[in-house]
Amino acid sequence: YMKYGSFIPLSETDVLEYLKKNGNSDLSKRGLDIKGEMTRYRSGLASAPIAGFMVTYNKHNLGLEDLGTLEEQNWLNDQIINMYGELIMEATQQKVHFFNSFFHKQLVAKGYDGVKRWTKKVDLFSKWLLLIPIHLEIHWSLVTVTMATKTISYYDSQGIVFRHTTDNIMKYLLSEAREKEQAAFQKGWKITIIKVKLNPVVILMLDYCRRLSVKQPLLFSQEDMPRIRKRIYKELCDCRLND
């Protein structure tokens, strides 16, 4: 509770493993109602959250209000999304670039000149993968860019092809290539559309980012969403991606 600020990321198995590690016997064989004890303990602490609980990483600060968006079916906020993107970049030794969740909105509103400074100190063309969260009103999707094959991939749960979105990203990459004098990237781009089936989309989007960045297969189901939420919560508090 002190480590994570709440019980949101903890399961009965987590508690049993902790008690076993710090005790002298296997408590799971004693017939204890661990889940019941957790529920009672959580209820007792609900009115007294840890004052000032904060996770700090680089320029990111997450409080319990931010982390609480990972509970049940809540929508994640931008602070969660952007810090998790930083963890992905760190885990890949900066070989993957994760764009801030406000990037696409700024690109649409102000064009290339409005976002040119965002990559002033970043060489996108040395990365193997770019991850670009797309927020269209209440709908999230994901654009990835595989630099080696010059492929722009659009992941969307509704199967809707927002062609203007992929066109905007292509125009951005062409402008960035001209700005950074990368002749090889000024032509030859292709676009693929990939329909995904899970909800809530924002959790799916973050997990896809994680899996794609470390080259893990996209094999999971709707039933995995609670576990994925708990894992993301723990990783944010630990300030690193866990194996």
TrEMBL record:
Keywords: Hydrolase, Nucleus, Protease, Thiol protease, Ubl conjugation pathway
Domain Ubiquitin-like protease family profile residues, every copy: 60-243
UniProt key word Hydrolase: yes
Single GO MF descriptor: deSUMOylase activity
Lineage: Eukaryota, Metazoa, Chordata, Craniata, Vertebrata
InterPro entries the record matches: Papain-like_cys_pep_sf (IPR038765), Peptidase_C48_C (IPR003653), SENP3_5_cons_dom (IPR045577)
GO cellular component: nucleolus
Main location: nucleus
Family: Belongs to the peptidase C48 family.
Protein's UniProt name: Sentrin-specific protease 5-like
GO biological process: protein desumoylation; proteolysis
Subcellular location: Nucleus, Nucleolus
